[in-house]
Amino acid sequence: MNLHAKLLERQAAGRPVTVGVIGAGKFGTMFLSQARLTQGMHIVGVADLDVARAHSQLKTAGWPAEAYAAASLDDAHKQRATLVTDSAAALIADPRIEVIVESTGVPGAGIHHCLQAIKHGKHIVMVNVEADAVAGPLLARRAKEAGVVYSLAWGDQPALICEHVDSLRAAGFKVICAGKGTRYEPHYHKSNPDNVWDILDKYLNISDRKSINPKMFNSFVDGTKSGIEMTAVCNATGLLPQSDGLHFPPATRFELADVCKPNSDGGTLEQAGVTEVTSSVYRDGRDVPHHLALGTYAVFEGETDYARRCFKEYAMLPDRTGKYAALYRPIHMIGLELGVSVASCALRHEPTGAPTGFRSDVVATAKRALKAGEMLDGEGGFCVWGKQTPADISLRDELLPLGLAHNVKLKRDIAEGGALRWADVAYDPNDAAVKVRREMETAFGRRNVTAEPVL
């Protein structure tokens, strides 16, 4: 409740929080649009491989040209302006920058930038949840050992879900389930960048198709992003994935406590203490009314008669039995509210969610029958989608992380729906991201995949 006051103190002292942003895509640009208006915060530099695009994005976000006209990092600091560069390394190495925002969305790049930021003593806000799903537990451990903060990104759904879980537990509640909403039908797992428009056109009015990356949007549609985000939640909160991953049950926001409770009590979950993503579409294709497609939620248990009475008296969205209740947030503001993470890292030295163990993984799963010799094209592509899987199963079966299923050749045929294994692809063991992932598997192994007490 005091982040704004702390930012104003830094502003008054002439020491705004100094930030370097890597990646000027949609999320990064949304953050930049508000960061320019945030007292006590200075965006020292923006790094993007396409400098012209970065300039265009800043202009689109409402920045006057003089605000990002700094010729060097020294000028950026002296003039309180912003340098636009293609060198992420320069921002990371600058000792005057306190926080690095990694928003490239590329797992290998995110892992590299994160490790370099830790090496240089900087806090890291990992917008790149794709990288977090591959190696977040190890990266967070490294950051803690170095005395810096590794944080999930406020505004993105995983961090908001972590806040639901933390606040409920701090109030003494047992969290039964937490997650988000999305639009889902079973055939979506087969969607690809070419046919994704058949789905998107039903609920998004995108007149200029060139304005979006269909591969990126397809990762939201085909179930991959849901698996990635719920993996981040599990690894940060101690909740567990269900043994067969996400089931995407349809639910209105008023049915959350009835649907997202254990099946032993009439719900859809295999047990308490898990993640789930609800669908805004019924299995027959009808839209769910009052759905939660852009929101987040948590279901919790009332363990006393008095608490359950309060659920009913105060309309806390109880289930039919009155034993469970739900809270939800109907929207998330994405990069527009990322400044909360930046300020929290710099001023409180506290993350807005961070991995504490390796409990969940996202594994590459065949969208169609794949043939030996094919090149995998990663997240949102034509070959695989990412399925949330318990980490112990992923480790036991040597399953291939979705984030590393890009630009690698298949060594054997894979049936549609099959989970890919490391042995199925010709990966480079010396690739930096592969080495970090393998190190994480060794570091955590099967010793740290059980749930923390759900209290």
Q: How does this model look, in words?
A:
This protein has 455 residues and is an alpha/beta fold. It has three domains: 3-155 and 337-348, Rossmann fold; 158-184 and 223-331, no CATH class; 360-444, Antifreeze-like/N-acetylneuraminic acid synthase C-terminal domain (Type Iii Antifreeze Protein Isoform Hplc 12), CATH 3.90.1210.10. Helices cover 35% and strands 17% of the residues. The chain is built from 16 helices and 15 strands. It has helices spanning 3-12, 26-35, 51-60, 73-79, 88-93, 107-119, 129-146, 157-170, 196-203, 214-221, 224-237, 256-259, 305-313, 339-348, 391-396, 432-444, and strands at residues 17-22, 41-47, 83-85, 99-102, 123-126, 150-152, 174-182, 274-279, 296-301, 324-329, 360-366, 375-377, 384-390, 406-410, 425-426. The strands form four sheets. Strands 3-2-1-4-5-6 form a six-stranded parallel β-sheet, with helices on both faces. Strands 8-7-9-10 form a four-stranded mixed β-sheet. The protein has a three-stranded antiparallel β-sheet with strand order 12-14-15, with no helix packed on it. Strand 4, helix 6 and strand 5 form a beta-alpha-beta unit. The longest helix is centred in the N-terminal third of the chain and has 18 residues, at 129-146. The radius of gyration is 22 Å and the shape is globular. The two termini are 24 Å apart. Mean pLDDT is 95; it is low at 447-455.
